[in-house]
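Here is one chain, start to finish.
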Amino acid sequence: MIDIDIAIALGLIVVGIAMLLSLWRLVRGPTAPDRILALDTLYVTTIALLVLFGMYLDSEIYFEVALIIAMLGFFGTVVLSKYVVRRDIVE
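Its structure:
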């Protein structure tokens, strides 16, 4: 049976690799929608990383930070998508 700390550590490594791949797509992405999708993926992987790190350290503060990043990430994705579609943020 696998120990939970080992599983969390492996999860942290996998999520870290996913973050690096998303960062690569954000920098390299040929179009603006690709970059927006990569940024949204970075938000999600950051949330996953914080939740796993909070589980590893047995601390609740990381879960609260993950909720804040989730709200900001959603707002940022909506604003960037609106800008790409309409070329105007404020309406």
